[in-house]
């Protein structure tokens, strides 16, 4: 999916919502455990009730690969079920060099046909470059994350008194461009989103941390939105685990609808 198609979906739905499919077998409603594939049964209902409000889905790969071969089957079935006009993100956080990165890219882009993948930049250009060789696919580079440990490295000053996350953003724009690279920018760092937007004015940001992690959607839009919206704001637990009963799909849809209505307001405001 190219940038214009993604923006078209945002305009069509008045939404920049990404639903995180962090599907945990220990948290899904108990009645699903009797199903042949409980994970896919859960995801299917989440998708059925949220697709009209979401422009992206982001399965966290760890929740699937932890279940071995069966988990990978559930993931592929989920991916195949997502409507073709909705952007898909493999939240895999891969980042190795040479042939290893090339094989990761083939796995997620060719074999599974994800639109994008999250990539860790720590090993530099040769760990990111292989993912950028696939037309129509995106790298979503970890830039400034919302976890507590992000303070350990990401904000440390480097040569020229620039924080490391700034160096990552500036350097990586020599590898990719706004049509094939996005950045992960945590919502709980509202005051930093403006800084990142100044460094990457035309790129999309994938923004986790809204909802259960306490990030402010208003601040994200105020500091992060650009002429093409430029935001995919992820919500996982607040949507998919809104209910543990048989009404979980309906409740997920209601929570997604709430976020969509707020996003529609913010798209008009900013």
From TrEMBL:
**Residues of the signal sequence?**
none
Pfam families reported for this sequence: OMPdecase
Q: Where is the Orotidine 5'-phosphate decarboxylase domain?
A: 16-252
Metal-binding keyword on record? no
Q: Give the catalytic activity.
A: orotidine 5'-phosphate + H(+) = UMP + CO2
Which GO molecular function terms does the record list?
orotidine-5'-phosphate decarboxylase activity
Q: In which pathway does it act?
A: Pyrimidine metabolism; UMP biosynthesis via de novo pathway; UMP from orotate: step 2/2
Stored CDD domains:
OMP_decarboxylase_like
Query: InterPro entries, per this entry?
Result: Aldolase_TIM, OMPdecase_type-2, OMPdeCOase_dom, RibuloseP-bd_barrel
Indicate what this protein is called per its UniProt record: Orotidine-5'-phosphate decarboxylase
Q: What is its EC number?
A: 4.1.1.23
The family note in this entry says:
Belongs to the OMP decarboxylase family. Type 2 subfamily.
Which SMART domains does the UniProt entry name for this protein?
A: OMPdecase (SM00934)
